[in-house]
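User: Small ask, check this?
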Amino acid sequence: MKGFWRHDDPDQDRDRDRDRPGQTPPPSNTPPAESSSNQDPDERTQLLHHSSDTMPYLSPDDPAVSPYNLWTVRFARWLTVVLTCLTFVWWILMVVTVFITPPGLHVRGSPFFAFGYATAALLTLAVSLLFFTVPSRPARVLSIVNAGVLLLDAVVMLAVPGLRHAEVWAGVVSVVWAALMAAWFVGADRTVQWGKAEEEQRLTGRPESRRSVLEWGEVMLSTLALAAVGVGMGLMTCVLVLRAADYGLAPPGEMYWVDGNRYQIHLYCHGRELDAAGKKRTTVLLEGGEDAVESGLWQLAENAVKNGSIDRFCFADRPGMAWSDTAPSPFSASVASDALSEALSRAGEEGPWVLVSAGVGSLYSRVFSARHGEEVHGMLLIDPLHEDLLSRVGSPGRGFLLWVQGAISPCGIDRILAAIVKGRRAADRVWGRSSYQSGTTIFAKLQENLVAESLTRRDVVSSRAIQDKDTRLAVISSGKQIRSDREWEDKQRDLTHLTTNLEGWDVVGDAPHRVWDTLSGREAIERRLRRLVGYGYSGRDGAGV
């Protein structure tokens, strides 16, 4: 027995029982020879050659009653297997792209979006294969809805220039393919339903309208699986709309192509470039830490220009942060330095520089300083990360959590709720309080994690060996961080020996890792900046301060 049967119409069942084995089949005007052996093979003469003139009807439970008797159904299944294999290969490529970028597959936005669409396509085809012989009307309806939502995503992606620039061809292909696979599910399921009805009519006398308990369970599972895919696609559509709105927020500076025009870097400069005598002023070059420059250091630099502490500053967002595109993987400190140098060159910006960096950003500034020694007149490191502590950034556990966070970031429940409940705006999502939820930011941190203890450590160790020892240096440390971490204190002290020209080491007692979040921290930073910028402007020319 296939399961427990639900009897809807007793009269219909009695009629059907008359046609079961042991009963006289209905008369036929066609001779048996013509009906079975003289006709060309068609959909009704496949694996089981049944003729109601010569054979009794079969039981619905007989294994011979199968839609696989029809070549059309068998072809649909094999085509579904081929499409599943192709989709699986594409899904693997999207997984690999998160860790190392294959040629031609660089996505300038978040690669997790293309991965999300590839996952949706693969799940849809997997459901089709698992429950292939049990057609389900609710599953077809859900798949039609999913296909419509995915087509809407494709239209939005192609219509918004910022999304089209970020997703490039890989993202567009992923969403279009996912929509096609959802449509294929409908076609394959409808084909199976037709084939099932055809074979039941031919072999049992009528299409079977009843289902076994097992079949009802399969219908429920396929419906729930496609409903889950639909919820995910709906959330991705909401995030895509938020991303489209965020691209309406223009960057304060300019975007410059780097790395052979593969991606763009955002660069912003503000202040007076020349003094009254036409001499070039020293420019403060900011490098953000764990967050974008815009989340704190930008405002500090603006105030420093207003109160006369400095004359001019510039900053470039690292790839994946704020307005900058993501870079291909692997992305080390030396690659970041090259991208910054190229952006500055394309913008026509030249030194002398005073480098101001915080946290992990100090590693990037140190590599830049080693490569531009004559142009760098000073460095201010704000609670900097030491190369011996890169394991805190590059631990496998942190990398796995970042990958999981990135994999679910296209659904963006936290971003959607923040926009609806907390009223977060585009600025919050691009560089502010909600920027950590962005797939591009998560990807940038994952890139940082993957090479922290290998490529980046090598770059920083090399830069220390070739650093100009006459470069003016100041270090400002978090008092809270030092009190809670003895190793951090030892490494802060070691960083004061990067050069032989130490301006000073300040420990701001009440300041957290983001030292500028406190008034005493901001005052300490501006005080050191005034001295470094003054020395950088005149000291190299022999005047001093």
